[in-house]
Amino acid sequence: MPPVLTFPPPSPGPARLVVLVSGSGTNLQALIDACADPAYGAVIAAVGADRDSIAGLERAERAAIPTFVLRVRDFADRAAWDAALTSATEAYAPDLVVTAGFMKILGKEFMARFEGRIVNTHPALLPSFPGAHGVHDALAYGVKVTGCTVHLVDTGVDTGPIVAQAAVEVSEDDHADGGEALHERIKTVERHLLVDVVGRLAREGHRIEGRKVRIPA
To answer: How does pLDDT run across 30-39, given as a tens digit for each residue?
Structure first.
C-alpha cells in the first residue's frame, strides 16, 4: 500500500503560500483578492516567476508581495535551475506552493522538498486531455462537457491526485473560434475552484491516501 501523507493546517495560521507564475497572473490575482480577507486562512508570502516583465509580477508588486525571478537560460542546466528554484521557494517557508499558470515542469529536487503540497490547475477534466493543449484537445475530440481540475503535482504531467473538478458545457459555437470563448469560460470557473481549494487546504489541511486527497469536513 502507498504511504499516507498527512499535512495538518499550520498552527498558528494563516498558511503561507508561494505562487509560481509565467504569464498574466489572473489566477494569482484571484488568490491575492481572496487572501485580503483574514478569514480565508492564507497569505501569499512570495511570487516566483521563470521570466521577467510579466503581468503576474506586476500584480504581485502592486500588492506589495515579494517576488523572485529564475530564468532557465541563466543556469547551466535544468537541474541547477531546479535547485535554485527550490532554494528560493524554501526561503519563504511555504505551507503550500501554487503553480498558477507556471509553464515549467518542476524537477526532482523541488518535488522531493514540497511533495504533497504543490497545487496546480488544468483546463480539462483529468485524466482526460493532459498537457499544454487541454482545451483544444477536448474540443477536437468532440466532447460535450469539459471543465477544469485542481490537483496536487507529482512527477508526471498532470497526473497528480485530483482534489476537485468542475464541469463546463461545450457549445457548437465554441468550434467557430478555435475554443477561445470556451477557454475563457473555463478560466472563470477555474479561478473560483482554485480559490476554494487553496482556502480549504490552508484552513483544514489534507491527507493523501494513494490517489485520494481528503480534506477534513
So the answer is: 999 999 999 9
